[in-house]
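Predict structure. Chain length: 206.
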Amino acid sequence: MDKYNFNNNDFEIFHIEGLDERMHAIQEHIQPKFKAIGTELTDHLASKLGNEMFLHIAKHARRSVNPPNDTWLAIADNKRGYKKHPHFQVGLFDDHLFIWLAFIYELPTKSKIAETFLKYQDQIEALPNDYVVSFDHMNKAAKPVGSLVDKDLERFRDVKKAELLIGKHISKSGADQLSGEALLEQIKSTFDQLLPLYQLGKRALQ
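Prediction complete.
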């Protein structure tokens, strides 16, 4: 097994019926890869940022009936959790892999981050054309970063459940064709490109 590679079998796990059955497959096949790749990425980000970063792997512990449609690892500067903090994510839906800088709805001061991004929106728009943005981490949908408008950031600021995720999607077939090392380098490169936005978001909270 390539410990950094996600192949078609990993994506097919999200078609397994039943909460226990799907969770068993996630724990058996995906989470060991999250641990390996996440450890590498955590060290990489800590080195770039000059402070300790912590790996969190989604447990889906609150689910009692419906199996998860996606799963992910998250990296944040908080040891106890990530949801209330700007963080990085790598995860899978059944048809693509996502690489995100994430500001999700649990973030208590996301309005301050939104105001900062409204001022520095050009830095988001300057990202490469293959970057995308999403406003709901539970939804597969994303749109090109170049199509971001003020109204999107204002909604992120004003609507409690609105989120902002910036990064890249890699299709199921694209991920299957990448070696683990190539995928790891692509994720590191994406995170490096997103670091200035992460730091903007962190400064907004100070």
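Summary: Residues 8-204 form a domain with the BirA Bifunctional Protein; domain 2 fold (CATH 3.30.930.20).
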